[in-house]
Specification:
Layout (H helix, E strand, L loop, with lengths): L28 H12 L3 E5 L2 E4 H18 L7 E5 L5 H11 L3 E4 L6 H10 L2 E7 L3 H7 L7 E5 L7 H14 L12 E2 H8 L14 E6 L9 E5 H14 L10 E4 L6 H13 L3 E4 L6 H8 L6 E4 L1 H8 L2 H4 L8 E4 L6 H11 L3 E3 L1
Parallel strand pairs: 1-11, 3-4, 3-5, 4-8, 5-6, 6-7, 10-11, 10-12, 12-13, 13-14
Antiparallel strand pairs: 1-2, 8-9
Amino acid sequence: MQTENVSTSYKEPGSYIPESLNPHHYTSLLDVLNASCQKFGNKPAFTSVGCTISYADLAQKSDQFAAYLQHHTDLKPGDRIAVQLPNVVQYPVVVFGAMKAGMIVVNTNPLYSPKELEHQFNDAEVKALVVFANMASHVEKILHKTSIKHLIITQIADFHSAPKRILINSVVKYVKKMVPAYHLPNAITLNQALEKGMGKTVTPVETHAGDIAVLQYTGGTTGVAKGAMLTHANLLSNMHQLSFRLQDVLEEGQETFIAPLPLYHIYAFLIHGLTMIEAGGHSVLIPNPRDIPGFIKELKKWKFTGFVGLNTLFVGLCNKPEFAALDFSGLKITCSGGMPLTHSAANHWKEITGCTVVEG
């Protein structure tokens, strides 16, 4: 899919975004990130698998990734980088790092088949890919059929300190056997990329509200998946709409939202990747919400104030007695989307948690 002739840059600040929807005069998603990283510093931004990164960490690590892209690859602003990751803390680092380097993010479902990957990568003209090690074997099968020149691989515990990182990654790979064998000799690890970018200067890339930020692919239910061209203005406007609707609920720097839905889908991307960041919130990422016992075990660790889900997830959790035993005293809002919400699921959730489900 060619987008160069379609995308237009708008040079006036806030263009494409009505003044009423842009009180802070943001022109790109990076304006939101930079403001929040300065404002909320050491407050937690994202947690996954026992690893928490603060807003300061997010700023530093995304700078390192941007510097790697600028200094150690031939990638240029406007090039497309696919991000094929589940809900792990590496996701926001990679996405914002890519944007700092001026690249367009192509959100990619980790569960895609090789055929689906081949279509999306070629359709979007992807030149770089960050992939979860568990899915790298699929990439190996189709890499030679794509224009991808730069491949970065990360494992689930890569942002943990050395002893814990080695232990968790080894258990996942060798005990649970969740990482099929792959051979991608030209790939580097995400930690190697961050190390290469450490200490390097990031050259600012001028970004306008009308520039494409993300190629968001549809589910392909009526044919092949199609890439929706989402500009910074598109996403900022949606973020402001959500913030306006949640203004009576969100308390700056005080919220902990549970994030079981994948960030590579636009629903969770907008809430956790933008709205919560602007509010200085803490998103607890759940890599595998289908593991209901493991999910409930993680929920026990937090006095969460928000929960973002969909109908089948509400039903699955409410059917477990262990879920009903959790502490819901801090829960102020439950958001539903992605599929129709049934009356029975909404009523059961309210009965157990005491919180009414708000449907988007």
